[in-house]
Amino acid sequence: MATTPRTRPRVLVLGGGLSGTLAAAALAPHSESVDIVERHALPDTPRPRRGLPQAGHAHMLWAGGADAIESLLPGTTRMWLGAGAHRVSIPNGMVSLSPGGWYRRCWPEAQYLISAGRDLVDWAVRSQALALAGVRLRAETEPVRLLGTRARVTGAVVRHRDGTEEALEADLVVDATGRSSRAPDWLAELGAPAVTETVVDAGVTYASRRYKAPIDTAGWPVINVQADARLEGAGTAGTILPVEGGEWMVSLSGTRGGEPTSDDDRFTEFARGLRSPLIAEYLDRAEPLGPVTVARNTANRRRHYEKSRVDGFIALGDSATALNPLYGHGMSAAAQGALALRDLAASGDITAPGFARRAQRAISRPAAAAWLLAVGQDALFPGAIARKPRFADRLTSRYVNRLITTACSDFTVVAALTDVMTLQTTGAALAHPRVLLAALRGPKLPPLDGPALNPAEEAVLLDGPSPRADDAGRRP
Asked: What is the pLDDT of residues 456-467, one digit of tens each?
């Protein structure tokens, strides 16, 4: 008797945001079909949508994440830039006050970042992913529970807009529903062991506002005033990002005891109280385009799915590792996780026993690197909910602070830190002999007494002419 040949695997992705569409891109070449379940309607243009409150805040897509997305979906970078996103060179395209002082801008490019509104970033990825063969979006459809046993997930039950429910079977289910994921509870309902969690929470509150820039933003830098965990009191920070439409996205933040508010009239006042008033001085010359948006759900939360032994289920992005947005690593870590998933899927059967655990381990590696960067700082702020720093943690913190101070005048160190910060390499790069030697020597030059602005950037503060920012030379 003839047997029916086995079809290629079916994949079900829960969540149609950035992580979900990247998961679809990773698995589409190795599947018969990929169904993306999303509870909200998704626009076909880069405009705001429900279910993405973080879109109202500044987002930096570091080089490590942008390169991963380009590998998964070639042509995405061209779409971003064509729609008005900015490619910002690092370190020379940043005006940044670190805990060690102002960075110089006289060096060549070490890495880059993509600066754009979150709606634009997601739209380009979504458009590319939904154009792939076999990928289908089921919008306005909400996942309500998983199907399967304690050993293997076999699908999910979803609820449609009209209230009816449907069981969708799949060979692999990917949870990309974000910070509020209910997957740990759903797995428990199947009898699977509890998913362990690690939480580090500095109590960061974000307040953001969009502005019409007072200058052509082509070539405009990222302006960043960082918090310093070594100082007494709350850690406050702020960022101006050039985004599409000749606008600035401005985000301010503070840890417990120093939080910004949603009061429009106090936004610039808060910026003026940062370690430098530079951001406030630029906001005095810009036009606000809407009210202040506030976010408080910013804890670092890591769900250790890599220790799970449940087949047929994977978690990606914030569903597995949610990071404090202050460091801008969420999108990049998710993208690198999706790229690791694609590479593993290319080497074997995604339905094979043990594949999900191997995939979760691969996904967790870039997330773990971003996690260490975030919690290493957050755990040091007053009132942080975290494990008390041990001797090794304090020693590492002292070394990193030494590197940050040295980086203000040493390209070897700033390049190494930039490679790590953009997730292009791991923290091991900071232990390279060249970097160790530079840290031992310390800063080569005295610290700058203020930000390294070029004439166009200075002209805005003087209310003078506004030439294109990329047409003027920079001073050190």
From this structure: 999 999 974 344
Q: Output the pLDDT for position 373.
A: 87
- How would residue 145 be classed by pLDDT, with cut points 50, 70 and 90? very high
Let me know whether 222 and 180 are in one domain.
no
CA atoms within 13 A on the CB side of 282: 33
Structure confidence at residue 395 (pLDDT): 86
Task: In whole angstroms, give the CA distance from residue 264 to residue 261.
Answer: 8
Quickly tell me which residue has 């951001």 as its tokens. Answer: 279
Place of tokens 């590197």: 403
Contact 234, 382 (CB under 8 A): yes
Q: Same structural domain for residues 284 and 222? A: yes
Average pLDDT over residues 197-220: 95
Beta strand 101-102 with 33-38 is unpaired
Residue 164 lies in a domain: yes
Query: 355 and 348 in contact (C-beta within 8 Å)?
Result: yes
> How large is the average pLDDT for residues 272-278?
98
Q: Is residue 211 part of a domain?
A: yes
* Structural domain includes residue 441: no
**Arithmetic mean of pLDDT, 362-374:** 91
Q: Give the residue from 474, 417, 408 showing the smallest Cα distance to 447.
A: 408
What is the three-state SS of the chain? CCCCCCCCCEEEEECCCHHHHHHHHHHHHHCCEEEEEECCCCCCCCCCCCCCHHHHCCCEEEHHHHHHHHHHCCCHHHHHHHCCCEEEEECCCEEEEECCEECCCCCCCCEEEEECCHHHHHHHHHHHHHCCCCEEEEECEEEEEEEECCCEEEEEEEEECCCCEEEEECCEEEECCCCCCCHHHHHHHCCCCCCCEEEEECCCEEEEEEEECCCCCCCCCEEEECCCCCCCCCCEEEEEEEECCCEEEEEEEECCCCCCCCCHHHHHHHHHCCCCCHHHHHHCCCEECCCCEEECCCCEEEECHHHCCCECEEECHHHCEECCHHHCCHHHHHHHHHHHHHHHHCCCCCCCCCHHHHHHHHHHHHHHHHHHHHHHHHCCCCCCECCCCCHHHHHHHHHHHHHHHHHCCCHHHHHHHHHHHCCCCCHHHHHCHHHHHHHHHCCCCCCCCCCCCCHHHHHHHCCCCCCCHHHCCCCC
Is residue 327 in a domain?
A: yes
Q: What is the mean pLDDT of the chain?
A: 93
Q: Are residues 307 and 164 in the same domain?
A: yes
Looking at residue 117, what is its pLDDT? 96
Residues 248 and 285 in one domain: yes
List C-alpha distances in Å: 285 to 214, 290, 366: 6, 16, 39
